[in-house]
Amino acid sequence: MARVLVVGAGGIGGLIAARLWHAGVDVTALSKNAAIVAAINGEGYRLIDAKGRAVVLPPRAPDPTATARATAYPPEGEFDVIVVATQPPQVEAAVAEVAPYLAASGNVVVVQNGLCEARVATIVGAPRVIGAVVAWGASMHAPGVYEQTAKGGFTLGRLDGPVDAACREVGGMLAHMAPVRYTDNLLGVRWSKLALNCAISSLGTLAGQRLGTLIASRANRRLALEVMSEVVQVAVASGVRLELVAGTLNLPWLALTPREQAGARTPALAAKHALLWAVGQKYRRMRSSMLSAIERGKPPSVDYLNGEVVEAGARVGVPTPKNAAIVELVWRLARREVTPSPALLRQL
Prior knowledge:
This protein is of the alpha/beta class. It contains 15 helices and twelve strands. Strand 1 (3-7), helix 1 and strand 2 form a beta-alpha-beta unit.
């Protein structure tokens, strides 16, 4: 059986480790948070059920008597798969720390938002990097207590090259917790997801709101469309072939046309608002992990989201004023110069 190390046991990483453990995978959660390590080792993985109760998630056969495993740094032994689930600002340092524990034929699976695969490739090499684009949400309510806040799946692919056997083996393992799709255009999937994250995650951070409340406002939907339109323009100018998000959401169509940017109210614009509203309702319980990181005193990932777009836009000559303003405002939030509020979105 493959040995799996999940680096980072927050909402996404903790839920992945919990589901893999329940499926009988040999998985260890790695965290620098002593309270999380103690909670998992002492009480197992606990998931919030439909009634809001924290219930222990036991492992399945063949070893139902096994206990969950979590560890602080350093881990023990070698691992065939290392899933990196830290926040983007910590990804390079985390991979550098765990790279010595990666088996010779092992792979690093990147689940962060943004464009982190290229950063990881500089440390372990591109042939050992698998991107896993996450289309579901999770929160950690307390150390070792996790809730899946939105349903969805994974899209897996290689940084540069077609899907191979190792990628499908990792996909088969992750399929224990969510549906898995494969792509030979990982960059296109990443940029499409980046467009959503630059709007939804960053605006949710500034407003301090869950997605359902955020997208219920027409003004916020308009702002989200403007932010995503900048991302689409940069991606197209950079030669990226954008993919459908979750197999359905067409970002180039969702981007504002010049007439719509100038203020025209077209039938297509009404449809775009309706689509965003529907997405907001489907994922209404999702809360920005960037906001959670700021609340814990950690640096925000905005430089790896909107900041990536601003830098790429400068390289290809595409202006990105909304994304640049978001970067500045999120950092003001992180420095405690302002507090999360819908008023910050009105400033934008």
